[in-house]
Amino acid sequence: MTRTDWTPRSRSAIAARVAEDIPEGWYVNLGIGVPTLVADRVPEGREVIFHAENGILGIGPAPDPAAVERWLVNAGKQHVTLLPGGCYFHHADSFGMIRGRHLDLCVLGAYEVSAAGDLANWARSVGDTAPAVGGAMDLAIGAQRVWIAMEHVTRKGAPRLVERCSYPLTSPGCVKRIYTDLAVIDVTPRGFEVRDMVPGLTLAALQDMTDAPLALAVAPDALRMG
Amino acid sequence: MIDKFVPSIAEALEGIPDGATLLLGGFGAVGQANLLIEGLLETGLGNLTVVANNAGYGTVGLARLLREGRVRKLICSYPRIAGSTIFEELYAAGRIELELVPQGTLAERMRAAGAGIPAFYTPTGAGTELARGKEICDFDGRPHVLEHALHGDAALIEAWEADRWGNLTYRMAGRNFNPVCAAAASRTIAQTQHVRELGSLDPEAVATPGIFVDRIVHIPYGDPQD
Fold first, then answer.
1. pLDDT tens readout for residues A8-43
2. Do residues B220 and B193 make contact, with C-beta atoms less than 8 angstroms apart?
3. Within a domain: residue B184?
4. Which of B202, B203, B189, B200 is nearest to B159 (CA)?
5. Cβ A138–B105 below 8 Å, yes or no?
6. ipTM of the prediction
7. Residues 6+ apart with CB under 8 A from A166
8. Residues of A identified as active-site
9. Is A135 part of the contact surface with chain B (CB cutoff 8 Å)?
10. Number of domain units in chain B
């Protein structure tokens, strides 16, 4: 088996795969990186309301470069737009929404996720040159569901799905599902369970790139299985 | 007649003691009271503890205050400066103390201070490095971290509109931490883009009631720059 037997999903395709699973009516917060791309991939006609930590509900598409509103940024400090029906509020209310479990979903990036759903996405070591946490810990404990969108392995090929995280934790036991460039994997009380894989990939090959046992989900998304 | 407007930045800042704890509104470049913060340089104040979400933006406002060595300690969730390494250099050289706080905990600690709540339990950060040494208590079978209110000697905020009673509105994402800081300090000083006659602000649109505001300076700073 060689890598040429399958094609990894692009960053945009990972985002589209996440977006497909978000039902109409959910309130959703998107982290920086691949998660941010999810907003643009929600199927036409499906209403999903996006939240930003800095006090916005109802974020719309990226602005026309000629008509940027400089007072309207998202949590990643990128300029955004507000949909009709959108609104503003202050930071304490915004994090009240998060901590108070009002968000249906948060999609975050990660360095590592463990088989118990532990999330490491804020620091590579305790002694980081300039440690920064932002809202990651609040989102991890507060959203009804935490999904992760990330590459399956690091640039050096090391697994990001692990038995135990080596980086400092953002929150223990918070991740429910992981979307990678190779597969969609649920975190269950039994460990990692594969819901789908890119065409041509086998469970054995995926296991080789994963540092914790994988099982097929009881009801995998059968039509997607390569 | 009550009139909280003062004609100069120097008068607005009068009475802030050396070594004060300052709460700064703003998120990224949006809603920062840059000219009030830079006014601190003229006062000669130093040994400051600064509470802010970021470590400044570009080379203005807080970034300048840091560069001039006026800040002893930063209490912050995301201490990075876009397009600058001022904070990283100070931190690496051991010339500034950092208390890293999750963003929602930062907002809630100030909210608590403004609302007369001395401390509270939050699920954010439980089981992570940022809870190290803090009191933990289980509620509903879930661990929570004891966090204390964060009160300021002064808050420096930016408003969109102000009247002479100190009622304030904000523009779009410029609201962010500003109303939270306004309520949490012994004296709250606002720079405002626009001055409105008493009675001309829509009472339904006032986001910070004047009870939280002590002094106002009219500074038509213009759009946030990045």
1. 999 999 999 999 999 999 999 999 999 999 999 999
2. yes
3. yes
4. B189
5. yes
6. 0.97
7. A112, A120
8. 53
9. yes
10. 1
